[in-house]
């Protein structure tokens, strides 16, 4: 709680959980979410691209080994779940896994480091430091997780229509579980809920886990001296959450897309 | 925490990242991994094959060694037999030669003996004639009695 004695706990928490926003109404942009997510995405792309450019079947370098381990892990996971042929699903799963992991990883940077630095820079540039907001972890922003889930959802619909056709997709939504015409409306409600629950659960699971984790870091940071022994075990535990959530997001994406591929 | 335009921005970013990954990241890496896996599998198969080849070659060599040993032993055996045969043949030949030489020598000796005997006989005849001549010089006419002497000589 370095940001000044005049700040109450509530103000401190609220300050940490507010995005740096530009714009009004719907056209508000969360600059911090966009910035950090694109930065981590570019880190992912460029670090993996560096390997891809020099990739050969000879003796790999150490970094190439590490990257190949991740790629092979994703590839195995995709292969064990998804049995069709698709050039999109494996790269998609890799992007989701590494990108979400890196965004989640921002949570392990001590909660005040970057916001404090931003306040100092903002103050130096003549802004009121109390109105300089910097929320570092993009996955604690619902916009971010819903965007990811929406991307997956669009792909799900796209694949369903591509594999089964529009008629097949509609049939899938209406003819089960009760295969009698006068219950089709009921089936449709059930299936629609099931369909919409998929992206919603994806988005809310990732958001909830990371938001809660971030909040606990902030709460621990309020404990004064006691935060020192507490941050460490929570960070250790959080490493698990970070990796697990990235993995779950990837696996569920693959599962949903392979379900969209299946014909009934 | 409200939903706003950030969602659209992130959706576009997500799309761009996935496409970039699909185009420039995934194919080369997975290609390299699969090629290496193939190479390793080939290498392992080759090493298995080489091991089997080695075992076969070793067995072959052992077999050939045994065969060569047997051949050598047979050769030595044959040579020993031949040697004995040659020695025997030589011995037989030598024996025959010895017999021949011996016979020849005996014949020569016999001929020599006969010749010597003839000489001796002639000499004895001459001597006897000479002796008789001397004894009978005075009373015997050599010419008159020569036919008797001749008979005597022939009897010797």
SSE topology sketch:
The complex is a heterodimer of chains A (264) and B (156).
Chain A: H1 9-16, E1 21-22, E2 29-30, H2 31-54, H3 62-81, H4 89-105, H5 113-124, H6 142-174, H7 184-221, H8 227-261
Antiparallel strand pairs in A: 1-2
Helix pairs in contact in A: 2-4, 3-4, 4-8, 6-7, 6-8, 7-8
Chain B: H1 6-135, H2 142-155
Helix pairs in contact in B: 1-2
Provide the succession of SSEs of chain A: HEEHHHHHHH
Give the % helix of chain A: over 70%
Radius of gyration of chain B: 61 Å
Largest sheet of chain B, in brief, is: none
Determine the structural class of chain A based on helices, strands and strand pairing.
mainly alpha
Overall pLDDT level of chain B: 90
Number of helices of chain B: 2
Instruction: Compute the number of structural domains of chain A.
Output: 1
| Weakly predicted, low-confidence segments of chain A | 1-5
Question: What is the approximate shape of chain A?
Answer: globular
The chain-level structural class of chain B is: mainly alpha
Distance between the termini of chain A: 57 Å
**What is the percentage of strand-forming residues of chain A?**
under 5%
What is the approximate shape of chain B? Answer: rod-shaped
Overall radius of gyration of chain A = 22 Å
Mean pLDDT of chain A: 88
| Continuous helix count of chain A | 8
Q: Largest protein interface?
A: A-B, 49 and 33 residues
Number of strands of chain B: 0
Question: Strand content of the residues of chain B, in percent?
Answer: under 5%
Largest sheet of chain A: 2 strands, antiparallel
């Amino acid at each position: 709680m370095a940001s000044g004695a005049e700040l109450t706990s509530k103000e401190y928490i609220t300050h940490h959980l507010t995005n740096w926003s530009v714009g009004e109404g719907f056209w508000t942009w969360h600059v911090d979410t966009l910035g950090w997510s694109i930065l981590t995405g570019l880190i992912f792309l460029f670090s993996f691209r560096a390997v891809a450019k020099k990739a050969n079947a000879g003796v790999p370098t150490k970094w190439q080994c590490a990257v190949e381990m991740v790629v092979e892990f994703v590839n195995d996971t995709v292969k064990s779940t998804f049995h069709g042929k698709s050039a999109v699903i494996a790269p998609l799963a890799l992007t989701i896994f590494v990108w979400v992991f890196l965004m989640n990883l921002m949570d392990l940077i001590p909660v005040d480091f970057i916001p404090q630095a931003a306040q100092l820079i903002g103050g130096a540039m003549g802004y009121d430091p109390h109105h300089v907001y910097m929320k570092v972890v993009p996955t604690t922003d619902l916009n971010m997780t819903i965007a990811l889930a929406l991307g997956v959802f669009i792909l799900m619909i796209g694949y369903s229509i591509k594999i089964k056709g529009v008629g097949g997709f509609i049939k899938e939504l209406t003819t089960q579980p009760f295969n009698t015409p006068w219950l089709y409306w009921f089936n449709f409600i059930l299936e629609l809920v099931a369909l919409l629950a998929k992206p919603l659960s994806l988005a809310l699971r990732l958001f909830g886990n990371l938001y809660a984790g971030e909040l606990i870091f902030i709460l621990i940071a309020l404990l004064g001296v006691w935060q020192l022994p507490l941050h460490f075990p929570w960070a250790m535990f959080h490493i698990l959450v970070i990796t697990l959530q990235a993995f779950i997001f990837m696996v569920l994406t693959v599962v949903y897309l392979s379900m969209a591929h299946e014909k009934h | 925490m409200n939903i706003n335009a950030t969602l659209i921005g992130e959706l576009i970013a997500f799309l761009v990242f996935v496409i970039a990954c699909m185009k420039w990241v995934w194919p080369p890496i997975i290609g390299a991994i699969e090629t290496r896996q193939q190479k390793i599998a080939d290498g392992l198969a080759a090493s298995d094959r080489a091991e089997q080849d080695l075992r076969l070659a070793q067995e072959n060599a052992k077999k050939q060694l045994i065969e060569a040993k047997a051949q050598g032993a047979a050769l030595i055996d044959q040579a020993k037999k031949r040697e004995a045969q040659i020695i025997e043949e030589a011995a037989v030949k030598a024996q025959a030669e010895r017999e021949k030489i011996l016979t020849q020598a005996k014949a020569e000796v016999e001929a020599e003996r006969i010749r010597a005997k003839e000489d001796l006989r002639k000499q004895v005849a001459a001597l006897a004639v000479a002796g008789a001549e001397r004894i009978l010089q005075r009373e015997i006419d050599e010419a008159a009695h020569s036919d008797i002497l001749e008979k005597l000589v022939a009897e010797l």
